[in-house]
């Protein structure tokens, strides 16, 4: 059997997580608005996530490229959409993108200058066809 590729550090112990298990609540995500900080590291090819800092952890994975501060994007939007069966919606970035190609990510992007502030509701629809209700 292959080793787990995602581990959670809970109460100081590393625990494997199944693909279908929701880790949002385990990492401290609550019903009220975030942000909820998650610390991460890569250890022997495994991604380790924790709600608290640990030796070697950062809030940015070492495989993530540095984000340019002069890209002209002033506001980015990402939506973590979790269904009642605790499944999280992810979309895959195109392999032709210059920054973070081919990665699975929450639906999101930057707001266009003429977009309304309700962009967090429209991004999932625009990227995946999922329509979110109001309220």
Automatic annotation (TrEMBL):
Positions of region (Disordered): 105-135
InterPro entries, sorted: NUDIX_hydrolase-like_dom_sf, NUDIX_hydrolase_dom
SUPFAM superfamilies linked: Nudix
Signal peptide: none
Domain Nudix hydrolase: 75-117
Domain of life (superkingdom): Eukaryota
Protein name (Swiss-Prot/TrEMBL): RGD1565469 (Predicted), isoform CRA_a
